[in-house]
Amino acid sequence: MHQNLAGHQTLEILEINKNLISDFYLNTTEIDTLETSKTTWFKTNFSDCMELYVDIETVAKYFKSHRSWFYRCAHPMKVEPLGENGYDLLVGKFGSFGYQVEVRIGLELVPPDSAGIYKIRNIKLPNYTSPGYEIKFQSEMRLIEISTDQFCNQKEIQKLGLPPIITGAKWDLDLTVGVKFPKFIQKMPPALIEKTGNNLLLKIVRQVSQYLSYKTQIDFHNTYNLPFPKQRKRS
């Protein structure tokens, strides 16, 4: 989930991500047509790390209370609770080639296991049938300790009285999406469909990751009244 979101670069990235919903809810024409039984699969793997400038115990406490902050950080996506640790998440409309679908997914934030690994997995939404797509979402996250001095030197940010050790939320995502395209798209070259779909999927994952990471960082540090380092000015 990490981009070093600080200073004016933070604001620029945030402005880009404020338009995430409108940019990726593509300005294509909604086409009402029968889907075929054939499913085209797209896949992406993504890894990142989000830094939180405090000890691991405080971060673990924050993640445990996700009911209190997940709604704020996921906005403007619509979120409804689902069971004890699950969410019904309306992501929005995505598409290409003049065809788009509204994506809705159930996600469960599984508490950490004995090895300290957090998992997020997709779960079935009650009374809902997806309109021509399938999503297989599997993510693992681990909290790691990071040397503050080394990190701040690498990222050119000021320490601002930070503790000697900060926390990184390091995660890996395995995402597979299957789409039942209408016949007019299936007439296109398969290689073109695969390349376009995989590129769009990775771009969406990166943008959503940046957006959620930044909002979570801000919410976390505001919740605990902690400093949020800024990028050093270059000479």
Q: Tags for this entry?
A:
33% helix, 7 helices, alpha+beta, 235 residues, Alpha-D-Glucose-1,6-Bisphosphate, Chain A, domain 4, single chain, 33% strand
Give me the strand/helix succession. Answer: HHEHHEEEEEHEHH
Number of beta strands: 7
Mean pLDDT: 82
Task: Look up the CATH topology.
Answer: Alpha-D-Glucose-1,6-Bisphosphate, Chain A, domain 4
Distance between the termini: 29 Å
Domain count: the total is: 1
Number of helices: 7
Main beta sheet: 7 strands, antiparallel
Q: Which strand order does the major sheet show?
A: 1-7-6-5-4-3-2
Computed CA radius of gyration, to the nearest angstrom: 19 Å
Principal-axes shape call: elongated
From the 3D coordinates, which CATH architecture would you assign?
Answer: 2-Layer Sandwich
CATH class: Alpha Beta
Strand % is 25-35%
Helix percent band: 25-40%
Overview of the structural elements:
The chain is of the alpha+beta class. It has one domain (7-223): Alpha-D-Glucose-1,6-Bisphosphate, Chain A, domain 4 (2-Layer Sandwich), CATH 3.30.530.20. It is built from 7 helices and 7 strands; from the N terminus they run H-H-E-H-H-E-E-E-E-E-H-E-H-H. The protein has a 7-stranded antiparallel β-sheet. The longest helix has 34 residues, at 190-223.
Gist?
With 235 residues, the chain is α+β, with helices and mostly antiparallel strands. It has helices spanning 7-18, 20-24, 56-64, 70-74, 148-155, 183-186, 190-223, and strands spanning 40-52, 78-82, 86-96, 99-110, 117-123, 133-147, 165-179.
Itemize the secondary structure elements and their pairings.
Blueprint: H1 7-18, H2 20-24, E1 40-52, H3 56-64, H4 70-74, E2 78-82, E3 86-96, E4 99-110, E5 117-123, E6 133-147, H5 148-155, E7 165-179, H6 183-186, H7 190-223
Antiparallel strand pairs: 1-7, 2-3, 3-4, 4-5, 5-6, 6-7
Helix pairs in contact: 1-7
